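Suppose a colleague, Dr. K., hands you the sequence of a protein chain of 422 amino acids and asks what its three-dimensional shape might be. Before reaching for any lab equipment, you can write down a predicted structure in token form. Begin with the sequence itself:
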Amino acid sequence: MITLQTIREQKDEVIARLAIKNFSATEIISTILSIDDSRKTIQLELNTKQAEMNSLSKEIGVFFKENKISEAHAAKEKTAVLKESIKELEAELSILEQKLQKDIISLPNTPHSSVPQGKSAADNMLVREGGVMPAIKHKIPHWELTERYNLINFELGNKLTGAGFPVYIDKGAKLQRALISYFLDKATEAGYTEYMPPILVNEDSGFGTGNLPDKEGQMYHVTEDDLYLIPTAEVPVTNIFRDVILKTEDFPIKCTAYTPCFRREAGSYGKDVRGLNRLHQFDKVEIVRVEHPDKSYAALEEMVSYVEGLLQELELPYRILKLCGGDMSFTSALTYDFEVYSAGQERWLEVSSVSNFESFQANRLKLRFKDETTKKTVLAHTLNGSALALPRIVAALLENNVCAQGINIPKVLVPYTGFSVI
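The predicted structure, expressed as tokens, is then:
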């Protein structure tokens, strides 16, 4: 959430930067500033009347002590009028504050100055590529391989729950577990503290990370209990620090967590969502960081290098993209996407997004730290990244490693799977 101070002090810059996200902010920012002006006027009037009433209350006590009964009753009549006026002003102020909050939270995060302009994924900027493209004679999509080797049963998942909820079997299940353990071990080796958070969160948690109200239609909602199934571990892990005031020496804060993730993916259909390409339930290991604002972009580059290292160890061909304004999320200031090449489908699959949210989430979370120089509390910066999401990693691993004997397992995973070939 952009701070009101930023909107007021940097109005033109905020409008210009939001335009990079193809968001026209001129009208709503003018409305926000007008509401805030009205709010200030009413607040000033309210403060004046409250001060007047406090003064009268003291006078009434003095009048009664001095036996000035008529003066005391006259003062009491004035306080009654003031009370009614104060009540009306408070109600008016509450309405304005709610409207102001609603309008402010409708503004997406302002993008970093390095974000390229563009309207869609076609306008994203290629940062670099790595790995070796697989030389495979027979290109087989993963949904055929999983059926051939009895690794994943999509129809059984459809029977048990519905489309997008696959059942992993035997070595398919072991491969899932191996990847989760491998990703968690790598994260803890890199200094991330492991958490095992709930997979249901309340509305405050969804709001804190910007998932509510922006992505409400994409989240599974348990209506009776008013709880939400998490779309990613980012939500509960980042909210660990909601309403927390940190110290400078607490930085950097590095967290990791494995969770199942749940996304409705409403409107998704067609060949691009077949098999593991787009699921309603999937497994993912997440990394989350809370950083000093001066160091958050260095932390972002460190996270990008970390995810790149995972893909290199898995021996997957990959590319890194800097997202353009039109393809960025509501909450992000700068995002790098990772894609791996899928030999069986002959296309690139997104497997990770690594983002810096700057103070956008922290403002919603009231996540601050005490600046030792200024002695003031300042909003921290939050970052997160997939490290990694399993479905498309599994798809690429299966499709890219087909051999005469079956499917080769990358060497780095063999200690976790207990087998080198499927």
